[in-house]
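Researcher: We're reviewing a set of sequences before deciding which ones to prioritize for further study. For each one, I'd like a predicted 3D structure that I can look through quickly. This is Alanine racemase. If possible, include the structure in token form so it fits the rest of the review sheet.
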Amino acid sequence: MAFIELDREKLHHNYQFLKRTFDKNNIEFGIVTKLLCGHNAYLKEVINLGVEQVCDSRISNLKKIKNINSEVETVYIKPPAKRSIKSIVAYADISLNTESYTINLLSEEAQRQDKVHKIIIMIEMGDLREGVMREDFIDFYEKVFEMPNIEVVGIGTNLSCMSGVMPSPDKLIQLSLYEQLIEARFSRNVPYVSGGTSVTLPMLLQGMLPPGINHYRLGETLYLGNNLINDKPIKGMKQNALTLYAELIELTEKPIVPEGDLGENVDGQKAEIDPKDVGKTAYRGLLDIGLLDIDPRHIEPFDPDVEIAGASSDMIVIDLGSEQPRYKVGDLIRLRMTYMGALGVMNSNYIEKRIV
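Model: Here's the predicted structure for Alanine racemase, in token form for your review sheet.
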């Protein structure tokens, strides 16, 4: 049976590394937990690290966090949907916003619940996902900051997630200048300039982060320990706090080239035949995990002698080479995952979640 394993020691080590880094630079931060897909035991592990602020894009996950520890500050990290307004005010202390219509609904609901709902206004800085256009931002802020039971606690941006636009000192300086402009124009304090995510952490570590950026929202680096710019390990962090294990359920020497008329497989792909492989054989294994659980492009065996050969809905085929392999049926194959790979596995009800 396939399972994913959370390494508690690695998670703790990485959190302490991040906390020391941010404390040294007077930066506040929240841990993004959407990768954990609301898994209660894993959420508890994160909260037990001493996290003070948790960010997620699913309101059901924020509700679980509040049930675990009501003192943890919760942040809803995408523009709220109209039909979720009541739950967002109930379970999210802060939400990221881009529409005055939506903020007005939050204001009305916050009055009904006798709460002050905090918001961070997101600015479009070129990645073309969420964000108020820069030329409209001052007018937008003026319209919003007087809404009752709404407190603007920050401005922010998101980079690299949609178009792959990388963070740069120039873009983050622009973001911090908008905070200065608001404070000068409206005599209002804006505590957070939230321009930091996992992809901008390398800028901080290299001393390239503009001084105005004082808030980070990050998750991937905590769990994987990698530099998202060059995909290499971050010095001082541990990699693969989450690891996937899949059981070998068949192991047979088979031809490399398929036999018969070829069409598309279940994933819409057609096999490419190398004439040099005709007549050759290799040891092929089947793993008890498939496309239903994970895209094989997002996993890599730890063993360099094991290659992913293909996948169907419930099984992944691995190539173990032409020599008699050291594996046998029933063995576990250890697999590292990208962020999207881990997200797929965590969202699968068929993969057991363990803690070591």
